[in-house]
Amino acid sequence: MRFFLLLALLAASALAAQKRYDGYKVFQVKAHDLSSFHAIAQLHAEQSSIYDFWTEPRSLDDPMDIMVPPAYMQAFDQLLQTHNLRHRVKIADVQSAIENNLKGQAAPSVVQEPRSGSLRYKLNWTEYHDYTTIALFLAELAQNYPSIVTLITIGKTYENREMYMVKISNAQTANPNKNAIIVDGGIHAREWISPAWNTWLIHELVENYAAHPQYVDNLDWFILPVMNPDGYVYSFADDRLWRKNRKPVNGPCVGIDLNRNFGFHWNEGGAAGNGCDQTYHGPTAFSEDESANVRDAILSVANGRTKAYLTYHSYGQYWLTPWGYTADLPEDYPQLFDLAQNAVNSLTAVYGTQYTIGSSTNVLYVASGGSDDWAKGGAGIPYSYTVELRDTGDFGFLLPADQIIPNNLEMWEAMKVVAEYVTGLV
Ligand code: 0X9
Ligand code: ZN
Known about the structure:
This protein is of the alpha/beta class. Helix content is about 35%, strand content about 15%. The protein is built from 13 helices and twelve strands. The strands form two sheets. An eight-stranded mixed sheet has the order 5-6-8-7-9-12-10-11, sandwiched between helices. The termini are far apart. Bound molecules: N~2~-sulfamoyl-L-arginine and zinc ion (ZN). N~2~-sulfamoyl-L-arginine binds next to helix 12 and strand 12. The site of zinc ion has 3 residues, from loops.
């Protein structure tokens, strides 16, 4: 009897189909006056569980990317006509884009260097990898490079997954009070390029240590490549475009936006009170296991010597400073801007990729409860940034896998600038 029950369960889980996006389109829409902007803003406010705003409404000058389900195509078209909204189709069929996004290219020589140790992880940067593969990669590096890599479990997620952070540090070097940098990724599940960059950063620091030992000898790194493992797993198995965590909300909906759940000026704008919305802030600040674990982990390592916090998202190619809860700028904004500018200059020098620099509120929109605001205002880390990786919307969250390595190569140049600067801070 039990055996049949097990079989039935297995069959049911195999049948639990992934959400398909056949016929869904992504439109770029631009308002031309205040009234047409309000029409779109209203759609965002009232129907964001139907229309997925890949970019939020900002201002008159900024176009937005909106994903429209086939059943609402006519209604959406009507709205575009009524308000005379300028638009173009960016992604004609989201399902095809999802499938193309998974295809990689042959690995360039840059990732085929011989590695020390006997184990060989499966992870590479020519395709996107699931949570298990990332976790095995981290465990293997810790095992093969015990003198510089420590795998830290910072707690569990709502669905009971371990959250892994690696500490990269060379205990052999003389200075016991090195500055530290904290990096994370994958707070939003569907932004797959973010964990793919975080794992590259770990690989570069550890496996290419000999090429630039100063970054590890003079600094301590704490890197959490997937801040939202439940959402990340769900985006592989069930719904490629999932954003939030996976905790059920009162009512029919699931998920809290972890980047609206951090406790610095929490719920002061740009965050939704409705649990069905993509930017639901949760019942209280730090109500979520994932954000609370990150808070505790950061506080346990921050202690004055952590000078930089970088949290990676996609997409849009922005290098953002606090604040996200207000249009006011932090007092040290000129210093934050300067470092961002230097980092972006080095990044752009690689392939010409442009990044926009500015405060979250001024460049994007008000959004309170972000991890960047809390890292600066709550944990006292001066150089706190949100970086929105490639692209500017041709593929959006569905960035083709053959852009992972170029993205990582240019971002590494920016990271070096930050690392060098942070090394010299007192
Ligand atoms: O809205 C967000 O959470 C981020 N953009 S995304 O498209 N990846 O969702 C931007 C967050 C910027 N920081 C703050 N608003 N604090
Ligand atoms: Zn994001």
